[in-house]
Amino acid sequence: MSFSPTPDPELGDKLACDAIEMVIVPRTHDLGGFTVRRALPFAKRRMVGPFIFFDHMGPAVFRDGNGIDVRPHPHIGLATVTYLFAGQIQHRDSLGTYVPINPGEVNLMTAGRGIVHSERTDPVLKAQGQELHGIQSWLALPREHEETAPGFDHVDRDGLPVIEAEGKTIRLVIGSLYGKTSPVPTTWDTIYADVALAAGARLPVDPETEERAIYVASGEIDVQGDLFGEGKMLVLRPGDRITLTATRPARIILCGGAVMDGPRFIWWNFVSSSKERIEQAKDNWRQRRFDIVPGDEQDYIPLPE
């Protein structure tokens, strides 16, 4: 989705659990009946591994012909990851890709040197009404891949590894965890898992990954006596192993990866290790030098001025 510059999320209260470095309380935005909670970027924590942007979309119920209508907009220097718990989004991009995103599937769109895409609700679903709930995140690309050719990867629900045991269901979206490896390609050490926990279920989080965060999408979890409800991102200290327990049925996202190879700048939909490259991308979009989206050529989001 298109990112507009907004104030950073606010930090939560100090915690008793030493294994948690900080708690990020996302800033909430109402997009006209559709709520988005933005956990990253954050003033005191710009990234967790390669994750430089993290939005929790919904849950929302669209009726009366309403839905998602994100017009064509550009990206550079990042990969978008779209993952839904409920609903559907129609993805189109300047590579000619046209694919619906359904719950339990993953879209990885690598912008590299530049891509344009749109995200909309299918007209039939608009007429019927639908729920929409999910996570949209951006991964910063390593310096050596910032100017790579754009690409697109889609893995359906049956293509992602699933681990089920003792009241937990773990769907591995990206990377390697708990003895399984996702088929989604990456250019940096990255982990991303969707974890559903029954009440009382326990989840160990090992320290092998350098930077890790837990986002509570629904329900409530207990970490060494500290309770965290929906809409909290817990950034874990490197090297600490923790075990969390669901106090009631919960849905969490476990994400992170290796520390990035240097800082990144972010402006609107552009990410780069170079401010000059972002200025170039701004001018290219202003002058309409990016490729168009086949099937969605007539509309676009102007550059914020």
Shape: globular
Mean pLDDT: 93
Strand fraction equals over 45%
Helix and strand content put the structural class at mainly beta
Specify Rg, calculated over alpha carbons.
Answer: 19 Å
Q: How far from one another are the termini?
A: 18 Å
The oligomerization state is single chain
What is the percent of helical residues?
under 10%
- The SSE string, one letter per element, is EEEEEEEEEEEHEEEEEEEEEEEEEEH
* Count of β-strands: 25
List keywords for this structure.
305 residues; mainly beta; ten-stranded antiparallel sheet; seven-stranded antiparallel sheet; 2 helices; 6% helix
Q: Can you tell me about this structure?
A:
This protein has 305 residues and is mostly beta strands. It is built from two helices and 25 strands. The chain has helices spanning 123-128, 275-286; strands at 10-11, 20-25, 27-30, 35-40, 51-62, 69-75, 78-86, 89-93, 98-101, 106-110, 115-120, 130-140, 151-155, 162-165, 168-174, 176-177, 180-181, 190-197, 202-205, 211-223, 226-229, 232-236, 242-257, 265-267, 270-272. The radius of gyration is 19 Å and the shape is globular. Mean pLDDT is 93; it is low at 8-12.
Short structural description:
With 305 residues, the chain is mainly beta. The chain is 6% helix and 50% strand.
SSE diagram, text form:
Blueprint lengths: L9 E2 L8 E6 L1 E4 L4 E6 L10 E12 L6 E7 L2 E9 L2 E5 L4 E4 L4 E5 L4 E6 L2 H6 L1 E11 L10 E5 L6 E4 L2 E7 L1 E2 L2 E2 L8 E8 L4 E4 L5 E13 L2 E4 L2 E5 L5 E16 L7 E3 L2 E3 L2 H12 L19
Antiparallel strand pairs: 1-2, 2-22, 3-4, 4-5, 5-12, 6-11, 7-10, 7-12, 8-9, 8-11, 10-13, 14-15, 15-18, 16-17, 18-23, 19-23, 20-21, 20-22, 20-23, 24-25
